[in-house]
Amino acid sequence: MTGFVPPAYGERSLGDVVPAIARALGRPLPGTPADPEPPTGPELPPAASYVLFLVDGLGANLLRRYAHAAPYLSSLLDHQEPATAGVPSTTAVSLTSLGTALTPGGHGLVGFTSRVPGTDHLLNALQWRKDVDPQEWQPHPTAFQRLAEVGVAATVVNKREFAGSGLTLASQRGADYLGADRVGERIAAALSVSRQPTSLTYLYDGDLDWTGHRYGVASAPWLQQLSMIDAEAEQLRDALPPSTRLLVVADHGMIDCPPEHRIDVDEEHVLRDGVALLGGEARFRHLYCARGAVVDVVDTWREVLGDRAEVMTREDAIGRGWFGRVSPAVLPRLGDVIVAAYADHAVVSTADFPYENTLVGLHGSLTPDEMLIPLLVS
């Protein structure tokens, strides 16, 4: 079955954005031991400074489909090719790719939840375990640290609650952090710090993603939130000087998954056979198998799921380039078996992840609605 969009690592993915901005500022980033050849990435117009506005959950297909709710942003779509998220198409993975300029196989955040090697515990990348050091989990210099080395001032503008979080330390250390909880605060902060020449200001808004999870894509609340995001972006662009460029991106899109298209591993008990630990998320599962059980797990899951998901070994997924180049330290964080959902299907566990099953909109797999993201310069 077809229908997946492969990640465009090194060409037009989230990990290519900050290096492209650095080039546009006239300060290209050097390579690192983790990535000796910096990605070529998209070509962005030169500017005195850049404001990078990431809208969580705003897929390129969604923006085009509901253009009436976002006239400003959708007006930019026809002139600019979309980019791709990484794999899986989920927030923690994408934000770390953006912040490090590395693929998931390099930076090591490989899912919403992933196994802590040598244990039977999962790391929830949005609710970081206190016994896991984020700077050991993601040891490479971030792109923000590398920007400072070439003379680019980097600032993150985000909610106060995220300052010092595990994900922030893993993906954004090296940038100044400005806490701003409301839209007006965030715009004002971005306008203030972006006046500094040769600077990058990174602005994050997670409200559209939250709304899509709670109410679904194209619901009345989601469309209203999209309109508010559109107004925020237009207001920001109007307030910025011409010498500053605004670049709007997203971390992934979203798909509504109806209850009848959800497979519960706690009802299909055979799906638990040979699986020691269930990780990932509903649209992209990492299955950590008991010793010697991989072949049987693959066969069972393929038989039960049929054309609802792609089921493969970790080695097959790596061979497809889904995670980019995978470092030895990251390898055991990936499931022994990978399950990527097709269409609007999902694999849930009402025992292990009860909250996840209450969400309407989901993401994580490789469908166009999840993988294609806007890359809009104005």
UniProtKB/TrEMBL annotation:
Q: Pfam families recorded for this chain?
A: Phosphodiest (PF01663)
Q: What is this protein called?
A: Alkaline phosphatase family protein
